[in-house]
Amino acid sequence: MKKEYCGLFGIYGHPEAARMAYFGLYAQQHRGQESAGIVTWDGANIREQRGMGLVADVFNERHLGKELKGSIAVGHVRYSTAGASLLRNAQPFLVRFGDLRMAIAHNGNLVNIQQLRDELEHQGSIFQTTIDSEVFVHLIAKNLNGGTLEQAVIKACAKVKGSYSLIILVNNKLIALRDPHGFRPLVMGRLADHYVFASETCAFDLLEAEYMRSLEPGEMIVVEDKCMQSYRLSESKPTTQCIFEQVYFARPDSIVFGEQVYTLRKQMGVHLAKEAPVEADYCMPFPDSGVYATVGFAQQSGLPFEMAMIRNHYVGRTFIQPSQDMRDFSVRVKLNPVRDMIKNKRIVIVEDSIVRGTTIRTRVKKLRELGAREIHMRVSCPPIRHPCFYGIDFSSKGELIAANNSVSDIARFIGLDSLHYLSIEGLLESVNAKPETPKHCLACFNGDYPIAPCAEGQKMCLEDSVALSW
Ligand code: SF4
Questions:
Q1: How far apart are the CA of 288 and the centre of ligand 1, in A?
Q2: In whole angstroms, what separates CA 428 from the centre of its chain?
Q3: Residue 444 CB less than 6 A away from ligand 1
Q4: Distance 409 CA to ligand 1 centre (A)
Q5: Gap between the Cα atoms of 248 and 448, Å rounded
């Protein structure tokens, strides 16, 4: 199954729209590193530049200063896992039909994509890519006959199921919307007189744009000339925003779903220290994951915060592998322990999540080899027991260590003296959720899926987990 994380950016009416989009994507590079794209509209022509790689590699001064002309821009960064890492799948996806020029950028994952593609192909649609955005384009085009563009987009959204935040450029309009459940974030702001949209507010900070608010779940905003209008997509659905955005995925300096992510992660650490205190010499993260939860853990527990593992910030996504078999090389090249800090020490490691557990196991083993006396782990979310079908890359159940193994088995596999995961209640309190008005998706923890997965997804849910071997 294809899974994607993505970052979106849109701006209306700015004389340097492409350059602003470049900065907006640059700030959101953590949301996708495989491809990047910007599409602009200058009132008569649509222009695009898309490429594989990082934002800084895909665009140059010629693109931003000369080629991507126009005052409206939409941009996208993408990360995808299974097999679809192709330039033709890079977004924004661009089409021309009649006198309309449309570019669409999508963050999320549709669960009824195969059924929709089959239906559309049966009716004569021809697909060029394997991305969800193309399905939206065909659905919008089919619904345009006789109606307005806004009505066509609303009708298209009524057909799809799953998670989607979209930014769409159609001639001189910019449309931004969140699905009725509000799985993925999307925020709006102002840069002088110009409306801007992004997945995360860190994009606004770089532009010195003012954050206005998060789009509501099921809200569609259309900007044209100096006017901005808000529409409802459909009857309201229960809000199920992805709690993993706040646990792990978003930048800590962003405001996501109306909350500062840094503060929430610190609160997760505070709750962890209350739920499972431990006597130790200090607490530490494996940088960069878990850093902010470790701050909260240290403040609540009174334990010193140490950085006993040092990250090499200059490791690219690929590097030349050693010619001989150098055990665990790729793990060691990224993080290296500070030897003096390890020997005879009782250490608490605060992690943001455990998915497979294999990399963590290698790191813990290294700490043991260097003489750590006790190693305890505190994890700032509950065990991930179920795959995600809404756009975060927890693949099949078989790859999730917590799917069929007990917490004590996982502790033994990793080589820990103790292991505690934050409870669901502790996590919800950390993100300021009120029990009487639930608004988060927790499906990867409790299997309670807000939208039923497709048949392929259900098969993945039933897949047996791999047994741990020591
Ligand atoms: S299943 Fe987990 S990762 Fe996926 S949307 Fe729900 S909370 Fe987020």
A1: 21
A2: 19
A3: yes
A4: 24
A5: 20
Tell me which residue has its CA closest to atom 6 in ligand 1. Answer: 441
381 is catalytic: no
Residue 388 CA to ligand 1 centre (angstroms):
5
CA distance 316 to 218: 38
Mean pLDDT score, 50-67 = 95
pLDDT-above-90 percentage for the chain:
76
Q: Using a 6 Å cutoff on CB, does residue 392 contact ligand 1?
A: yes
- pLDDT band, very low/low/confident/very high, at 150 (cuts 50, 70, 90): very high
| Domain boundary assignment for the chain | 4-237, 261-314+326-437+446-462
Q: List, edge to edge, every strand of the sheet that includes 35-41.
A: 46-52, 35-41, 72-80, 4-12, 194-198, 187-191, 210-214
Predicted local confidence at residue 365, as pLDDT: 95
Q: Using omega within 30 degrees of 0 as the cis cutoff, is the peptide bond preceding 464 cis?
A: no
The three-state secondary structure class of 359 is helix
- Quote the pLDDT of residue 380: 98
Q: Is the pLDDT of residue 189 over 60?
A: yes
Q: b/e map of 126-137 (b: 16 or more CB within 10 Å)?
A: eeebbbbbbbbb
Q: Which residue has the tokens 């994951």?
A: 289
pLDDT at 321: 64
Q: pLDDT for 201-220, tens place per residue?
A: 999 999 999 999 999 999 99
The class (CATH top level) of 261-314+326-437+446-462 is alpha beta
Given a cut of 70, whether residue 374 has pLDDT beyond it is yes
Mean pLDDT of the chain: 91
Is ligand 1 within 6 A of the CB of residue 177? no
Distance CA 458, CA 404 (A): 17
Centre of ligand 1 to C-alpha 416, Å, is 27
Output the residue whose Cα is nearest ligand 1's atom 5. Answer: 242
Q: Give nearest CA residue, ligand 1 atom 4.
A: 388
Name the residue of 392, 431, 442, 448 to mutate for ligand 1: max ligand atoms within 8 A of Cβ: 392
Instruction: Tell me the Cα Rg of the chain.
Output: 23
| pLDDT score for 234 | 79
Closest to 176 (Cα-Cα) out of 185, 160, 165 = 165
User: 139: closest CA among 168, 170, 116?
Assistant: 116
What's the whole-model pTM score? 0.93
H-type alpha helices, 415-463: 424-430, 443-446, 455-462
Report the CATH fold assignment for 4-237: Glutamine Phosphoribosylpyrophosphate, subunit 1, domain 1 (3.60.20)
